[in-house]
Structure to design on (182 residues):
């Protein structure tokens, strides 16, 4: 599937093309993966794991909770900018309504959320981050940041400000709203 993807691009990946590349039947593909979208999502697992390792490293290098939060949000933006196709496939995937829903995992299984929650809770303990449920605040940060990336991609019929301007402004606004005044 990776070879087909590299050679022909995301739009041209089919179970048949993958089966031909792997010298197996289409049935064999579906014996391992319940659907083509499931197979496609498996392609992004390793790069997303590497991204999560980068998040952990970035978080560990920061001295303050505020710096951790901002650095994590910035890393998320960088990941989307540096890997637009991977980001689209792994974070902007819209499952057709006819496709079965995946098994839901706990949100805390995401390194991004876990690191944000920890930094938020630490900042609240130090009196520099506003009081609220840390898990809710982490979800709001992620949803806001994701939205500023996704909206211009998904609704590209409008003339938006540049991606960079929208993203930098959103990051500044989020940080302004989560910090307590000095």
């Amino acid at each position: 599937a990776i070879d087909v993807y590299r050679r022909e691009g995301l739009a041209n990946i089919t179970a048949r093309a993958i089966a031909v590349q792997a010298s197996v039947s289409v049935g064999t593909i579906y014996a391992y993966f319940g659907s083509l979208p499931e197979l496609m999502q498996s392609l992004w697992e390793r790069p997303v794991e590497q991204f999560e390792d980068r998040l952990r490293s970035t978080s560990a290098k920061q001295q303050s909770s505020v710096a951790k939060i901002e650095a994590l949000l910035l890393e998320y933006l960088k990941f989307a900018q540096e890997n637009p196709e991977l980001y689209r496939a792994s974070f902007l995937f819209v499952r057709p309504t006819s496709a079965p829903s995946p098994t839901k995992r706990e949100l805390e299984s995401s390194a991004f959320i876990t690191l944000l929650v920890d930094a938020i809770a630490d900042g609240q303990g130090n009196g520099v981050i506003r009081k609220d449920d840390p898990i809710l605040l982490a979800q709001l940060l992620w949803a806001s940041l994701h939205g500023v990336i996704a909206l211009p991609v998904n609704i590209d019929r409008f003339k938006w400000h540049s991606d960079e301007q929208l993203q930098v402004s959103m990051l500044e606004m989020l940080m302004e709203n989560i910090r307590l005044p000095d």
